[in-house]
Amino acid sequence: VTSGDLVMTMGAGTITDVGSNLLRRLERRPTAKSAKNRHSDDPSGIRIQEQSPLSLATTMRVGGPADFLIRASSEDGIVAAFRWAVQRELPVTVIGGGSNVLASDAGIRGLTIIVKAAGAKALQSLWHTDHGDFVELVAPAQAPISGVGRYCAEQGWSGMDWAVGLPGQIGGATVNNAGAHGTELKDHLVSIDLLDEFGQRITVDAAWLGASYRMTKIKGSARPRPWIVLGATFRLPKSDPVHLIALADEHASFRKRTQPSGPCSGSTFANPEGDYAGRLLETAGLKGFTIGAMQFSPKHANWVVNTGGGTASDAWDLIMHGQDVVRDRFGIELRPEIERVGDGDAWESTSGNHE
């Protein structure tokens, strides 16, 4: 929470205590003069945060400090942040919604760019071309995938309803080839706009991405990666908006019923061929299993939840333990969908030292 922010609370029971509790916490927070999380403004207009805790940028609420962090809510912001890093010869790490990344307890060296915009602002950046029985939609990397899915359903454009209720942004969803309910992002993808390692804006077709189940050419490349997603273009057939909205509502309702909320990951493991990671973990007795404060959710075993004060190293040990147990019991190798980012030395020193 920073100066000028508006905080709204909705709910019942003790919800009226939230405001006073928040004020007390803010009063105890270090002043700008003494805070470790320092801010500075570059002549290009971007705001640079130093030693910014990555626990505030990931849905699991874990991660140490980023050396430098810039929040980019537009393509111009992404480009300016990248150029700032290049001028200082800093490696660049890009995070979107933070649901499929596990940030090291030691933080991330160099510059971390958070590519994310508020739903209403991001949706204003959508534009489309009408081709009669279908549209081509251009969505910026910073747009929330769920909001884009809802918007498309309301317009009567099919192919994105599966995304309603998912965490994350278009950029991260493209890198991961996100999907649900039998549909993947690649199914309607036409092209991707990228910023390459030389700072040039390029457009590549969908085939370039080499997308497969929860994997792409970008995700498979070593960090620091030579590409940053700026946006994606989709070919969406027209359909009945009433039907699509009903589908979107059904998907959102399903997620609320079956998946945890609060500080947690997205899907921890990709589903193996012909089975479900959650079923395997639950059958192996790991539903609710805990290491430190990190737990396989009692609601859905393929989600890792932070029960309070958890660490990235405990989360990774938990993930590796789950992988070991499933391998030993069923002979199936679960592939983590979550990606570790940050200080490699810290990962090597985790208690389990798994690779």
C-alpha Rg, in Å?
21 Å
Number of helices: 9
- Secondary-structure-based class equals alpha+beta
**How many angstroms does the end-to-end distance come to?**
37 Å
Q: Reading side by side through the largest sheet, how are the strands ordered? A: 1-2-3-6-4
Low-confidence spans: pLDDT under 50, at least 5 residues?
Answer: 27-35
* Number of E-type strands: 19
The helix/strand order is: HEEEHEEEHEEHHEEEEEHEHEEEHEEH
What is the general shape? globular
Rounded mean pLDDT is 88
* Largest sheet: number of strands, sense, barrel closure: 5 strands, mixed
| Strand content bin | 15-25%
Helix content: 25-40%
Quick tags:
single chain; 355 residues; alpha+beta; 5-stranded mixed sheet; 5-stranded antiparallel sheet; 9 helices; 25% strand; globular
Report on the structure:
The protein is α+β, with helices and mostly antiparallel strands and 355 residues long. The protein is 27% helix and 25% strand. The chain has helices at 17-28, 75-87, 119-123, 145-155, 170-176, 241-258, 277-283, 312-330, 344-348; strands spanning 38-41, 47-53, 65-72, 92-95, 101-103, 108-115, 127-130, 134-140, 179-180, 183-184, 189-196, 201-205, 227-237, 269-270, 290-291, 294-296, 304-306, 335-336, 339-341. The protein has a five-stranded mixed sheet, with helices on one face. Strands 7-8-13-11-12 form a five-stranded antiparallel sheet. A hairpin with a 5-residue loop joins strand 1 and strand 2. Helix 4 runs antiparallel to helix 6 (241-258).
